[in-house]
Amino acid sequence: MDYDKELLMELFLDDNVSNMNRLIVAAANVINENNENISSMNEIIMKEDANQIIRTENREFVRRSLSYSSKNFYEDIVVKYTDEDYAEKFKMKKTTIQALINHLREYIKPCSSVIPLDKKVHIFLWLLTSDSSYSDVAELFGMHKSSVSYIFHELATLLSEQKYHFINWPSLEEQHVTRIKVNSRFGFPNCVGFIDACRLRVRSKTNQKGKPEIILLQAVCDETLMFFDIHIGQIGSTHKNRVYRESQLAHEMKNFIDFDNHILGNSEYKLKKNLITPFTSDIPLTSEETKFNEIHWKASTYIGHAFEILKDRFKKLNSIDINKTDAIHTLICAACVLHNFVLLHEGSNYLKEEAVINNDGVTIDPNLVKTAAEKRKFLCSYINYMDGA
User: Max alpha carbon distance in the chain (Å)?
Assistant: First the structure.
């Protein structure tokens, strides 16, 4: 073998040379003496360099890792990730991912694939928590692109089938806990949840205009940021109230919530007896109505934080490059299931334990308060009375 002697001398004489470069030079000397060691030394170099790049940012990590990909990337590199590596790459704890693997093992057929379930889960999460393409991940893990695509859709489907295990309307007891905590923190009585919809971009290859389209994910969460109801609209439907009307929740709200209780939504929703929105008017609002809107807005920030966590952790949702509508719905549903799964195991940094200082609610007489507008006016008066007490 021919080596650049000037390069080798420069590497040895430079005091600032990296350990990695010294390793390369050492490898070159050994190879020069014995060509049979080439493959083993290349493997050492690959592992050493891969270990150095584990803690880089996701995009940089993937870009630099691609040149070191092999069929053993998962076995040699990923399985050695530390807790810090998991938090950086997957935005969740190593123990949480292991719990997910154990949970899914109960729902997957034994020996259904030559690829172990734990490897499948990591490939799926690698795609879901980054903007990497199937080709990127396939090259990184030394697999065919079609195999990576199959794994991704297989696990997305499996997780979406777990929807009713992890996304359920809260019981009366759970609603009562939410009522107490929201009223104690913000002074808004009888609130059992928060509704909103976030816009997700879809980049379909069949879209001839080449521009991303929008799909709305409607969700209701509680004070723990857990989703307990979701509905995914159709691509291109961007009006929140229209998507709400198409959801099962719109038709069954009264079966889920007592008359006294309600969820909070912004002004893009239509005021309902169990869906309280802020005051809007062409004329200036009264000071009482302004105060009501202020407290309503503060309390409603829970759902915004839930969406932030969802999209920050599962970056695939920020630009969904899937063509089939059903597959898009499956992916979004799977991400929402995982959102709840992670919160169940880890909680949220946003949430802080606070002492309950107001355990009271308010009883609303349906004989006196008969319409949604009357209920909102009643709540407005009550909130201003309590705020001034």
Answer: 96
